[in-house]
Amino acid sequence: MWRRSKHACLRATQFAKLLFSPHLADSSYLHISTGLHLPVLLSADVQSTCNAGESTGIRIVCGVYMNWKRPLNQQFWKHWQRGLATSPGATKVFRDPRFAKLEESDMQHFQEIVGDKGVIVDSSELEVANTDWMNKYHGQSQLLLRPQTTQQVAEILKFCNSRCLAVVPQGGNTGLVGGSVPVFDEIILNLGAMKSILSFDEVSGILVCEAGCILENLDTFVGTKGFTMPLDLGAKGSCQIGGNVSTNAGGLRLLRYGSLHGNVLGLEVVLANGTVVDMLGTLRKDNTGYDLKQLFIGGEGTLGVVTKVSILTPPKLASTNVAFLACEDYESCQNALKEAKKQLGEILSAFEFIDRPALDMALCHLEGTRDPLPSKHNFYLLVETTGSNEAHDKEKLDAFLEAGMELGYFVDGTVAQDSTQAGSFWEIREGISEALVKAGAVYKYDLSVPIKSFYRIVEDLRAQLGNAAVVVAYGHLGDGNVHLNVSAPKYDEQLLAKIEPFVYEWTAACKGSVSAEHGLGFMKPHALHYSKSEEAIHLMEGFKKLLDPKGILNPYKVLPACAATSTCFVSV
Length: 572
Ligand code: FAD
Ligand code: MLT
Ligand code: ZN
Prior knowledge:
By secondary structure, the protein is an alpha+beta fold. About 35% of the residues lie in helices and about 20% in strands. It contains 19 helices and 21 strands. It is globular, with a radius of gyration of 24 Å. D-malate binds near residues 234, 433, 446 and 483. Keywords: FAD, Flavoprotein, Oxidoreductase.
């Protein structure tokens, strides 16, 4: 049961003061004038409440616990979160006091499970693992574990669950929403040492491997067998297949090969209590009961740790062409997409969009890049074809380019003459994220919107921000996925207040998604309701509770109820 030492009846303003007050050091119990009864635990030792599965209270809002069985009034919840949510760069959050702190005896136990090599306490290694790719989210973990087998993962989780030690699963740490790094002192469970290829079927193209395999290495491996990975992204040199699966990464080939929900045929997953769930099928068709693996594809490490993956790889085709095209208006980009689908059909493998500020960002910050075209234009398209017959593909591409030029969709363009030139076009497109990080602070929005609205959000946000920041846009136009980025010299509360909830409300108004492919992580749990109904969120919370009753897996992430602590400013 919760410890409740005091009761207080507070008005909203007093409540706000309480949230912002650094002086509170005792357990309190709030009765807010909305009629909500929220027990507030501010620094009490509440280890005993860890058995959340059996107890009634579980979740926290800045140390405010609510009842799983009696969900908080949703309207209040939304408004409160909207009001307080802020950039993680500026947010100070409250550590969930249900989680235990590491003790010497824990370290000994971990050493017994993974050996000396698997227990990392070196400060420089920890600093890297505590910091995300954008250098925006910083955790304070004192322990990084590198298991080598599923059994070790299972033993680690079983122990952490029994001790109520929080854990953040980590792959290549290239995630863009702060999901892969601890928020506080969560133990980092890095899968990088589990990198064996287990089997490859050269007829079906089905690959089975461990979760820590790096995507590019897998592509090289299947490439030697005449196949290719069904996904490709700028982070391929570092990201791991387990991370890709856990984020349901989209990337540059989704247009052609579809999402991981279709390509992943099976998974092995370890649950929070250490149970190993074998769903590692290699069948294209399997309708025996619920397709449980789908829950973990895009689960962002909150429901289980992916340890093995079975994935369908398509044949690697001999002929690839890449064109870099310029358009003067967005309407023409849309028309070009329509034409590409019509003319290129089955050989179209990517249709990427870059606006001029995004291109400038890349040219300015990425060494060795140069503008592929002699004069400046407003929009660019990177169109790739992949097929099995070079002459046939060229013929199709030429027909598309001619039609596009004649119809006035493109005003200029060039087709890569060799793989080096094609690589230089891709370098620009894939390097924009890195260029943005080099340029300073970046607010990233990864939206799915109807294609006709793809660029309107960019223009509207520019109008909203004026000269306050640079707005750049790029993305997977073929999938309706715009990467809307705001670049500024530093993170700034006032700037953020102009961006959010503007962007989220705009997206909701056109029935878009606030996360097309990057996930919610630590950045966006408060925005989930813009894209999902209350009922759907409630169901998600039910799955979380079922699979991880103590909430030890990647806390403060994905679900608003789990992340509520990230929406307040109380520092600990
Ligand atoms: P991490 O970043 O380590 O983790 C990501 C999330 O998955 C975290 O929540 C983590 O807890 C969880 N996780 C990791 N491994 C496991 C596991 N084994 N079991 C359970 N949970 C796990 N994304 C796209 O969708 N499309 C793109 O085109 C794209 N391009 C990118 C380009 C660049 C330059 C960068 C830096 C990132 C890009 N991303 C893109 C973001 C993308 O999410 C990641 O690159 C990738 O999928 C994450 O893999 P990772 O191994 O780095 O996972
Ligand atoms: C991309 O498409 O380049 C990635 O999703 C990364 C990003 O959005 O910056
Ligand atoms: Zn992307």
